[in-house]
Write a structure and sequence with these properties.
heterodimer, A: alpha/beta, Rossmann fold, 6-stranded parallel beta sheet, 4 helices, 32% helix, B: alpha/beta, 5-stranded antiparallel beta sheet, 11 strands, 26% strand
């Protein structure tokens, strides 16, 4: 994607991280859609959030289609479950190639089984927390 | 064969029994303490009570280069993860898993799982086979519906009855693999004569199933 083209982000999972990403991107004027199976999870979104909210199971193609996955340039897969995030990463890579994928992994050891693809990057909370610890402990 | 069995409950127990009877080497990992205890007591084997989606659990189980992993969790994505870890980190040759959502069977295959099995899909296939036509024909699909096994009872008015197989001009997309002539099982050759009341077991390309059934059922005067 060229830098001039408008980004559009699909967030899967209204976890705390998912909500943060959605709120941030929405306030920055990025087209955004966010999916969660649980309607109650959407209350984590900011009042000013102006994207699409889709209630449904992201493991169903019909939900992904409702969330306009074809049009998304980036897909953030950030549910609380590693197995779901890894499966969706495989699914999106295979059926909707050439999208930037950012996934959350609680267990960083699972990075090595992700599809070998330069468009995929992972966020591991434990690694970031440890980096924070190192910074804090040196203060 | 060296086989790793992950998760599952009663179905795991049955599979463990069957494979042990056939003298395979079985390693069992189950995340549920009570189920692990049950499987261990039932089979007189050690069961590793740990999470098979964690690398260290699989590592402890020493399953490198095993022949087969069978993932039996009731969560499809968990089975997917177990199979991918087994394949990519531990180089297990073949991956088989349960899927609860029949739609997932083809998706799992496209994402690299060798044999996803949907109980509901298989059940529907068996029911369809049992209901087929006028109950003289039963069918079963294998390899994700690419291969059909057809079982047909031969009636005396069928054109093929009392003829040698080599004289039938049998469709090339199928083959008569076996004949059940109570109480005997016959492996047929070209000069085997098909007799009324025989049950033919035919293996065919799935897309030719109807053609073969029609060929066998063709009457003498058709």
């Amino acid at each position: 994607m060229s830098k001039n083209e408008k980004r559009s982000v699909l967030v899967i999972g209204v976890s705390k991280l998912g909500a943060e990403i959605a709120n941030y991107e929405s306030l920055n004027g990025v087209d955004i859609a966010i999916v969660d199976i649980n309607e109650g999870a959407f209350r984590k979104l900011d009042e000013r959030f102006s994207g699409y909210k889709i209630i449904g199971n992201a493991l169903d193609f019909s939900t992904l289609k409702k969330a306009h996955i074809e049009e998304a340039s980036d897909v953030c897969i950030v549910t609380n479950d590693d197995a779901t995030n890894i499966f969706l990463t495989y699914l999106v890579t295979h059926y909707y190639p050439n999208k930037k994928i950012i996934l959350r992994l609680n267990d960083e050891k699972k990075i090595k089984i992700l599809p070998k693809n330069q468009n995929i990057s992972s966020i591991c909370p434990s690694i970031y927390s440890f980096k924070e610890y190192l910074t804090e402990s040196k203060k | 064969m060296n086989i790793l069995i992950c998760e599952g409950n009663k179905e795991a127990n049955y599979i463990i029994k069957e494979f042990r009877r056939l003298h395979h080497n079985i390693v069992v990992i189950n995340n549920d303490y009570n189920v692990s205890k049950f499987l261990s007591e039932q089979n007189g084997i050690d069961v590793i009570n740990d999470d098979p989606t964690k690398e260290f659990a699989l590592d402890n189980a020493q399953i490198y280069d095993f022949d087969l992993v069978i993932a039996l969790s009731d969560k499809d994505v968990r089975n997917f993860l177990i199979c991918q870890m087994a394949k990519q980190i531990f180089h297990i040759k073949k991956t088989i898993c349960l899927v609860s959502d029949p739609e997932m069977v083809n998706i799992f295959v496209s994402l690299g799982i060798d044999a996803p099995i949907s109980a509901s899909k298989n059940l529907a296939e068996v029911i369809k086979g049992e209901l087929d036509l006028d109950s003289i024909v039963k069918t079963l699909s294998l390899e994700n519906e690419k291969i059909s096994i057809i079982e047909v009872d031969i009636k005396s008015n069928f054109d093929c009855a009392n003829k040698m197989i080599k004289d039938l001009n049998f469709p090339s997309s199928g083959s008569i693999s076996c004949i059940f002539r109570d109480p005997n099982v016959i492996i047929p050759h070209g000069d085997t004569v098909i007799a009324p009341n025989d049950t033919l077991v035919i293996v065919s390309i799935a897309s030719s199933e109807k053609e073969i059934i029609n060929f066998i059922k063709k009457g003498k005067n058709d």
